[in-house]
Amino acid sequence: MKHKLALILKFLTLTILFVTRVNAQVNTSRNNLWTIQSIDTMKSSRDLASEKLNDKNYHQKIEEYVKVIADTGATHVALGTPYEQKFIPYMKVWVDAARKNNLKIWWRGNLAGWEGWFGYEKINRTQHIEGIESFLTKNINLFEDGDIFSSCPECENGGDGPRAVFSDVENYQKFLVEEYHKVKSIFAKNNKKVAANYYSMNLDVAKAVMDIETTKNLDGLVVVDHYVKDPDQLANDLVSISAKSGGKVFLGEFGAPIPDIHGEMSPDEQAIWLEEVLYRLAYVEQLVGVNYWTFTHGTTALYDEDRDKKKPALDVLETFFAAKNQKIKVVNEIGFGVNNAKVLLLGKEYFTQNFGEVMLPLLPHRIVEMKVEANNYYQLNSKLDETKTKITLKTKKTQWWHRTISTIMRMLGMHQ
C-alpha cells in the first residue's frame, strides 16, 4: 500500500513539474483594442486613380505609404479605387503593397458611374448590382480571407441622390439588402471569407435606414461615417445608433480637422484631439473597429506628403493601434492555469488558452476595469495595468485532488 502511494505521489510530482515547465514555454498571440484598425487612402487610391494610373514613380511612393500604414499596427488599409476594369492595374499596385506588408484590405471604392466619377455616365440601381457582380466575377482572385468589401460606400451620394433615399426609405433598404446578399453569395461560392456588410453611410442616413429589420438583414452591423468636434458626442452617437438599430457599429470615417466642423488645428492640436477621441472610443462596447480618414492629402491627413514626414497624430494612432499587450495568467488556488476563462475588458471578450494565459491590450497610460469568470469558479473583478501579471480564481467547490496537489507543491516549495 505504501509502495503504491509512493508511486502515485511520484507521478503527481512529475506531472506538476512537467506542467510548470510547459507553462513557461507557451506563447500566446497578441490582441488589439479593436478588431478592425484601418487607415483610409481615398485621397490617393481613388482621387488620383486616373492621373497616376501609369505613373511608376508614384507607384513606388504607394509602396512607401502602405509600409508606413502597416507600421502603425493597422489591420487593414482602406482603398477607394473605382471598380471599373480601367482602374484594375492601379488597384493592383495598392493590393500588392498591402499583401507585401501583411495588411488586409477594406475595399471601399465603387463603380465610377454610381456618382459619375472621372466623367463616367451615371448608372441606376439595377446597373449597379450587375456591375458589382461583373467586377467580383472577373477579379475574385484579388481578395483574401479577412478582407472587407463594400460594394457601395456612402451609397446615398450616388444614383438618384440623398433625396431619393429619404423620400423612399423602404425601396432603398431593399436595394442595399438585395445587393448585399448577391455579393455575399459570390464570396461564398468562391470560398472567400470576406465580410461584405460594411455599407458605410452618414449618420443622418443611418438613422433613417438602419432599423432593426434592415440591420438584421445586413447581418447585424451599422457602418457610419461621422465627423463631429466633440469626442464625447462622437462616442455617444455611436452608442445611440447601436441601440436604435440593434447592431454592432463600425466607425467608417472619422478625422480632424475639417475646418467647418473643428476649426483650424495645428499638427499638435490634431494629435491632442485624436488622442481624446481614441480614449473615448475605447470604452464604446458596441464598436468593432475604426477607419481613420485620411492618410495623405487634405486637412485631416496623418502624413505630410509634401515634406514626406509623419504628423504627430500618426504617432498617436500608432500608440492605440499597436497597443502594448500584457500577458495575464489566470490560475486556481493551487497555481494551475484555468483554460477558457473569459476576461471582459472594455466591452470585449478574451479567453485564456495555453495553461490559463491570455494577452490583453493595454489602454495607453490608463488603468481599466476587467471581469474574469470561468466554469466552477467565482467571478472576480480586477484592474488591468502594466503591473498585473496573475489573477487567481477561487474554486466554488474544492476537490480532494486539489488539496493533494496543493500539499505536494508546498512540500516542493512551489506553492504560490
- Give, in spatial order, the strands making up the sheet with the most strands: 4-3-2-1-8-7-6-5
**Broad structural category:** alpha/beta
Arithmetic mean pLDDT? 92
Please work out how many helical segments DSSP would assign: 15
What low-confidence regions span 5 or more consecutive residues with pLDDT below 50?
Answer: 16-26
Strand tally, please?
17
Annotation keywords:
alpha/beta, 17 strands, 15 helices, eight-stranded parallel beta sheet, globular, single chain
Describe this structure in words.
With 416 residues, this protein is α/β, with parallel strands linked by helices. It contains 15 helices and 17 strands. The strands form 4 sheets. It has an 8-stranded parallel sheet with strand order 4-3-2-1-8-7-6-5. Strands 13-12-15-16 form a 4-stranded antiparallel sheet, with no helix packed on it. Helix 11 packs parallel to helix 13 (267-282) and helix 13 (267-282) runs parallel beside helix 14 (312-321). The chain starts with a helix and ends in a 5-residue tail after the last helix.
